[in-house]
Amino acid sequence: MTPTAPTLLRPTDPADVSRLLAGARAVAGGTDLLVQRRAGAEAPTLVDLTGLAGARPAVTSDDAAGELTISAVHPLTDIANGLTDGAGVFPALTAAICQFASTTIRNRATIGGNLVTGSPAADTVPALLAAGAAIDIVTPDGGLRTVDLAEFLLGPRRVDLAAGEWVTSVRVPQPPVEGGFRKIGGRRAQAISFLNLAWQWHREPDGRLTGVRLAMGSVAPTVVRLRTAAAVLEAQLPTQDVVDAAVAAIDADISPIDDLRASAHYRRRCAAGLLREALLPPSGTARADQYVTPTTREKNQ
Ligand SMILES: Cc1cc2nc3c(=O)[nH]c(=O)nc-3n(C[C@H](O)[C@H](O)[C@H](O)COP(=O)(O)OP(=O)(O)OC[C@H]3O[C@@H](n4cnc5c(N)ncnc54)[C@H](O)[C@@H]3O)c2cc1C
Description:
Layout: E1 7-9, H1 17-21, E2 25-27, H2 33-38, E3 45-48, E4 59-62, E5 67-71, H3 76-84, H4 91-98, H5 103-106, H6 111-117, H7 125-130, E6 134-138, E7 144-148, H8 149-152, E8 153-155, E9 158-159, E10 166-173, E11 178-184, E12 195-203, E13 209-217, E14 224-225, H9 227-233, H10 240-249, H11 264-279, H12 296-299
Parallel strand pairs: 1-3, 2-3
Antiparallel strand pairs: 4-5, 5-10, 6-7, 6-10, 8-9, 11-12, 12-13, 13-14
Helix pairs in contact: 3-4, 9-10, 10-11
This protein binds flavin-adenine dinucleotide.
Residues 25-33, 35, 49, 72-73, 100-101, 105, 108-110, 112-114, 116-117, 122-123, 166-167, 190, 192 line the site of flavin-adenine dinucleotide.
């Protein structure tokens, strides 16, 4: 059955949003919501948050506080441009956006939508979780509450957001210059991740890694930190033995399941390959694909 067209409201002043959201639903890029609508999800009145993007920059850096503020309502393209134009450095998020869907989707999709959809496979979430993000949420009375991203993610498609609340921005402690993101999907573009990994660390002058933070998607009910593997790496030189130990430690951090995209077995092998690849560049010999055989037979075994 074709859904009836919703009423679309497009505020440009953030102060108007809470009032308009009473009994309505937020929409940003619409790249998840419109798919849900086709599947029959109801949304009688939509409040389009993208009109708010003109009121502020996509990314701001507060050097004194050592913090980056990233808009939840700008398209991902604007966020990536903000990060590469010198507004701040966040290599893992920049890499995640570059591997996200396709240019057309990146020109529409937002971080707010990616967070609120609550998918364990969401591609911006590992970088934000690894960086220790805090989510700024506007409450129905126009107040502000802040919640750690780790507590915001409650389960598959479930987040800590009440009716009438909306996400205005995400704040992270300024990430180190060394970080990255890699995903494995069924193809290079327009692919939901079978698995994804974000990492960040400082590399000390003697080569040891400190402040190691890793987060992985599609291996648990929510995106998760790889705390055990990170602890193995902390303050160590990433020698072959240390990398082997960190890769072996991943099993304690993840609980993948078989689903229509990939088997748990395949995901465990990909998880090992992705971490090895993150730790052993740029010799070029340690690509994740070399550690997995992405055949349909294996994915389903
Ligand atoms: C072809 C295609 C390819 C895709 N590829 C990827 C991919 O590679 N990686 C990936 O992670 N995802 C992918 N997706 C999923 C989707 O693009 C992302 O989840 C995207 O970030 C959603 O953002 P949006 O702004 O479009 O959200 P919308 O669709 O506008 O909204 C999604 C949900 O979030 C709510 N919402 C939106 N913004 C806010 C806010 N600021 N505050 C409160 N609630 C809000 C809406 O009410 C709705 O429930 C893909 C989707 C499509 C259609």
